[in-house]
Amino acid sequence: MLKSAALLALAAVVTARKCHDLTIPISISARNAVFDLPAPLSEIDVTSFFLGFVHAGINYTDALLTGYKTVSGHYNIAATYCQPDHGPGKALQVLTHGIAFDRSYWDYPFNNHNYSYVAEAVDEQGYSTFTWDRLGVGASSKGNPINEIQQYLEVAALTELSTLLRKGCVKGINAKFSKFVHVGHSFGSAITYNFVNANPDFSDAAVLTGFSQNANFLSGFALGGNFKPVKEIPSLAAKYPAGYVAVPSSVGVNIQFFAPGDFDPKMLASAFANGQPATPGEILTIGAGLSTVNAFRGHLLIATGERDVPFCGGNCSDTTTIQGAFPNLLAFSEILFPNASTFEAAVIPEAGHGLNFGYSHKAAYASIFDFLRSSL
Ligand SMILES: *[C@@H]1O[C@H](CO)[C@@H](O)[C@H](O)[C@H]1NC(C)=O
Ligand SMILES: *[C@@H]1O[C@H](CO)[C@@H](O)[C@H](O)[C@H]1NC(C)=O
Ligand SMILES: *[C@@H]1O[C@H](CO)[C@@H](O)[C@H](O)[C@H]1NC(C)=O
Ligand SMILES: *[C@@H]1O[C@H](CO)[C@@H](O)[C@H](O)[C@H]1NC(C)=O
């Protein structure tokens, strides 16, 4: 009797939030770049691609660009909707993950979901959340890795999903929201940046995590990953078309996402085991639209780990690359958000690029939810 009551109590704690998986058909189109690049199939092809990408003195995206073409398609997007036990939350957070992961980045199962952003958002803060596997990744539809799966088409996917969510037209979500928060991580922040620029009044607030507008340090990420052809990685080979590229070792994942001293080695092993690939088309369009002055009119937070490699070169407080004109590399973005209701930049002490994976995740979530509490 006692034992089953205890089990029930435990079950009630564990299942506090109600989540279900969705498959959402969408029809979208975007003006994509056309690159003169064969899909890299061998290790040497992949390495040559990354050496081209980091090569000083040229803009590799521009060097390979032959023009632009509208790409259209019908795709299935894999997503998960969560809400508090008692019903829909006070706003819907639309969460877009970055390169090397899928939507589980936001509700990471490691250590009994102890690190989960979704658990914090839904159970502690009373939001609903919508996480999606970016087009081309995880359980969402895949596509041509050069000229189809690019940032432009993924922005179109986020735009369509957001529109369906606001209209209450997503089958399986019996709630209609008037308040939205768009949150991205890394490449997902780039997608979110372009979404809120094109739809400046859609979201009440936006949070760009693992992000800055300083492109000086992407080479650490590009080379540090030791990327290989996806077909050489047994756990991914059957799930992705040839031409995708992935990080083949925990050393690569460590360099890209984890700051020294800020992580449980078992979390690194888990992140490596669950890693997902990227497309060369995504890597070439990672910076698309990011030097554009942003029209967003809601509240804006940029939250990035102090030791983030791709966006801060391992030290967001070193402002040498911007001649010391701002207190840190994130604060620089304020001039690019002239119409935001408020702008905040939070450097998360000791954190790496994978904010949701470090011991520092608590400090990151505290910054984000403090910001949202004062914004909404
Ligand atoms: C590189 O070239 C692309 C394509 O022409 C362009 O969109 C992008 O802004 C360029 N990047 C930089 C840093 O100049
Ligand atoms: C996660 O684990 C830590 C250490 O065991 C604990 O202090 C904390 O309360 C846990 N957090 C959640 C959300 O369960
Ligand atoms: C900011 O708002 C002003 C006034 O509405 C408008 O003229 C300007 O174009 C906006 N800036 C951007 C970058 O959208
Ligand atoms: C980061 O850079 C700043 C400014 O150059 C320097 O004062 C600080 O010691 C650096 N931090 C670390 C952790 O290296």
From TrEMBL:
Q: Taxonomic lineage of this organism?
A: Eukaryota, Fungi, Dikarya, Ascomycota, Pezizomycotina
Domain AB hydrolase-1: residue ranges: 94-357
The protein's name is: AB hydrolase-1 domain-containing protein
Which range is the signal sequence, renumbered to this chain?
Answer: 1-16
Specify the domain of life of the species encoding this protein: Eukaryota
Name the keywords, alphabetized. Answer: Signal
